[in-house]
Every structure is written in C-alpha cells, then in structure tokens.
Design brief:
The structure is a single chain. This protein is 79% helix and 0% strand. By secondary structure, it is an all-alpha fold. It has two domains: 189 residues, Growth Hormone, Chain: A, CATH 1.20.1250; 201 residues, Growth Hormone, Chain: A.
C-alpha cells in the first residue's frame, strides 16, 4: 500500500505544482507576442528588446542554487510563496516602467527570480509528499509546462488587443500571485525527520562558533585561524553547490555540460523571434500568436510519450543519443522557416519543432542523472543550470544585433541551427568516442579478470583442509 505521504493531500500538492509549472516555466513563451509593441514604445532595436526575455529566462535557470539554500533554510512552502510574491510584484512594477532598463530589472530580474523560487521549490516539494508514486508525480507535474505554453500566448494576445501591454503586465502580476496560493496548499507533512513547514536548522559551518566568539569579544579573535576556517567554509559551500570537482573528473558530465551550454546559444531564439518574424513577413498578429500555442499544445501529448519511450530498457545507457537526435531535429527544423514564411509552412515548422523540443525537455535532466552519481546530482545540477543560463542570456541579444545589422530575420534561424546542430553532433560523437574508449579499457583488463577467475576456481576446488588456511587472502581481496 502507498505510504501516508502518497495519498490524500499529496495529490492536491501535485495539482498545485502542475499550476506552478504552467505559471512559471510556461510564462516566457508569451514574451515574443509583446516584442513588437515594446520595440515600438521604447524606440529600441531588436538587440535591446531581446535583453528582456533573455534576462527573464537566464535568471529563471540560474537561481537554482540560491533556491536550494532558501529551501534548506526555510522550507518549500516559504520559498514558493516568496517566489510568487516576487514574480507578482515584478510584473506589476513593470507596467509602470518608462525605460527598457527598468523593465530589465522588474519583469526580467525580479520576476525571473521569483518564478525560479516558485518552480524549483514546488518540484522539490514532490520529493517530500511522494515516495512510491514519485516518478508518476514528476511526469504529471511536467504537463503544467505544456499547458502554460498553450494558454499563456492565447491569453497574452487577447489582453494585448484589449488593453495594451502595460495593463496586460499589471494583470499578469495578479495572475502570478496565485503562486502564493499554491505555496499555501503545501501544508505541513510530517516525515521521519523532516517537516516542510518547519524550517530546517542550518548545518553548523566550520568556523561558525569561532566567529560568534569573536563577536562576543568585541571583534578580537582569540583564535588566529578563524579567518582561514571561514574561507574554508565558503570554499566547501561552493564545492557543494557548484560541482567543479565533478566537472573536472567526470568526462561524461563535462561533455554534456559543454554541449548543452553551447546549444542554449541558439535553442531559445525561435521562441523569442518566431512571432516578430511572422508579423514582419505579413502574417496577422492573432495568427502569429497562435503559433506558440500550437507548440505548447503538441507538447502536452508528445512530452509524456517521449518520457515513456526513454524509459524502455533498450534506451538504458543510450538516452544521450536520443537527446542528440531530438536536438538535431530541432536544429534542422529551423530551415523550414527560411524556405517560406507562409502561415501553413510555419504551422508545419511548429509541429516539427514541438516534437523536437518535447524530446529535449523530457530528456534534459534525465541524461544528467545518467552521467552523474545521484549523491552528486544536486551540486552538478547547480553548475549545469548556471552555465546554461549564461548562454541563454547572451544568445538572443547577439542574434538581435545581427538582425539589426542585416535587416534579415532569416539569420535568427541560421544562427539557431548552427548552435543546436553543432552541439548535437559534438555530444553524439564525443559520447561515442568515450564509450569506445571505455570498451577498449575493459578489453585490456579482460585477461587479468580471467586469470583472477581461474585462480578463484582453483581455490574453490582445493580440499577442505587447505581451504581452511588463515584468511590472509580474504583481506587482500577486500583491499
């Protein structure tokens, strides 16, 4: 039978996490709809305008380690509600912005950080509320992203037509405050040694006691090694939350992190520039907004299927190649936009792109779990998200600068294809070479293994009197 945390109120929490993912991860999909209006009102270039969605998405990914500290100190409920408050206040403030720089701070940084807190703390809460059905809960929660991708663009276009982008952002602030309601649903669940509501006591850091002693003595330190101890504590914390040691030692993690970081330079470009490109090419605004919703709608069905497919035993140890195939399809699909900008052709592009994005989204963190040991996954994820957020930040503005110079939106899709395809090929060939090297190493060790097995068989076939010799060999074997 399911444990007490796998039933009852746990399913209400799951519903709250589905809503959280739709509100937070689905939100950046609608920014492209406001691109032309923001550009016109602020008299900005493509590069300047694209900094807004870039900052939002980058902070949404990069705030992971900070969210982890927040959850550890105060619990998931507090982090989700704080995130809802920040994201709502950020969007409300953005409706009063008079410059793009102010928009970068309010809707970009503040709202992005709030969305990060709500999303990541919400996903973390599932680990406490579900044990037996944790995999099912995570799969169901991910459908919230697809729902958000579908509904946010439709709502954005309707509100933009009715009341303009400023009033729309004001309403968005109110909608995002519902993250606080989702956080409130995460009421206390008492586990063996953990409570979601009771903040966890911070672990004693090296040098903490000495630091308190120093303050009590008016700043004079009775121990000369207090400062080195504090520096060691900070280094240990960085090492814990940013897995530099894993990056240097684990070749698979190294290849995957570099590949995904490079891929993110072009991955987000279609989401930001597809609607402006369609409008620029003569597609009506309401039809252009529909394109993003098509991507989200198909995601609802394809993402779970991709997750089920990758779970088959055949793909065990081969998920990286499935991920590379999805990335390759994503990069190649961009050439459809270059061929024609007719609405029917763009719909075909969105269908193919959505299939590819579903594969990437379903496998992105699953492959990371495959290449990193679970006890180091949390810190490896922190470094992984920070590095990819850097390229997510600089990719769109650089491409926007290229469009400003050339006056040709086709370069958006050329650039996206270059980065995504090259990253897919790099990861596929690198992992193939790594696998071949591993097999050669195993083959070179095979004779030694066979001789060991032969010696073991000889020992097992000895007479009982000889087998009862002093267990010196046992100690050698254990070493």
């Amino acid at each position: 039978a399911a444990g007490p945390q796998d039933r009852g109120w746990a399913w209400m929490v799951l519903l709250a996490v589905v809503l959280l993912q739709g509100l937070t991860l689905g939100f950046p999909s609608c920014i492209g709809i406001f691109f032309t209006d923001l550009q016109r009102d602020f008299h900005a270039t493509n590069s300047e305008t694209s900094w807004f969605p870039s900052i939002l998405v980058a902070v949404l990914h990069a705030g992971g380690p900070l969210c982890s500290l927040l959850v550890k100190r105060f619990g998931c409920r507090f982090a989700v509600m704080l995130g809802g408050l920040l994201s709502g206040v950020g969007m409300v403030s953005s409706s009063f912005c008079t410059t793009l720089s102010e928009l970068y701070l309010t809707a970009g940084f503040i709202s992005g950080l709030g969305m990060c807190f709500s999303f990541q703390a919400g996903v973390t809460s599932l680990r406490y509320y579900f044990v037996r059905w944790q995999a099912l809960a995570n799969a169901m929660a991910s459908t919230g992203v697809s729902l958000g991708l579908t509904l946010w663009p439709l709502l954005s276009h309707y509100l933009l037509d009715e009341m303009g982008w400023r009033n729309t952002f004001l309403i968005f602030g109110g909608i995002l405050l519902n993250c606080c309601v989702c956080g409130a649903i995460m009421r206390p669940v008492q586990l063996a040694s953990t409570s979601l509501v009771q903040p966890a006591k911070p672990e004693e850091e090296p040098g903490r006691e000495a630091e308190e002693t120093q303050l009590a003595n008016g700043g004079s330190s009775p121990h000369p090694n207090v400062q080195p101890a504090r520096r060691t504590a900070r280094f240990q914390m960085l090492k814990k939350y940013l897995a530099f040691d894993v990056f240097c030692e684990n070749k698979g993690y190294q290849i995957y992190t570099i590949g995904v970081t490079w891929m993110m330079l072009g991955f987000a470009l279609p989401h930001i520039y597809l609607v402006p490109y369609a409008i620029h090419s003569g597609v009506e605004e309401h039809m252009a907004a529909l394109l993003i919703s098509v991507i989200g709608f198909i995601n609802i069905f394809i993402r779970p299927l991709t997750g089920l497919l990758s779970g088959l035993s055949f793909f065990t140890g081969r998920r990286i190649y499935l991920f590379c195939l999805a990335a390759l399809l994503c990069g190649l699909s961009n050439f459809i936009c270059v061929i024609s900008a007719k609405f029917s052709v763009l719909i075909l592009y969105c269908v193919i792109l959505s299939i590819a994005i579903s594969g990437i989204g379903a496998l992105l963190f699953q492959v990371l779990m495959d290449v990193v040991e679970m006890d180091k996954f949390s810190s490896a994820l922190g470094l992984f998200t920070i590095l990819e957020s850097i390229t997510l930040l600089i990719g769109p503005p650089l491409t926007g600068f290229l469009v400003d110079i050339t006056r040709d939106f086709h370069y958006v899709f050329y650039t996206s294809s270059f980065f995504v395809i090259s990253a897919a090929l790099f990861m596929a060939f690198s992992f193939c070479a790594l696998e071949r090297k591993s097999k050669l190493k195993e083959a070179s060790n095979a004779p030694l293994d066979n001789s060991s097995k032969h010696q073991c068989n000889e020992i097992l076939t000895e007479p009982p009197s000889e087998r009862q010799s002093p267990p010196a060999e046992v100690h050698i074997t254990n070493i």
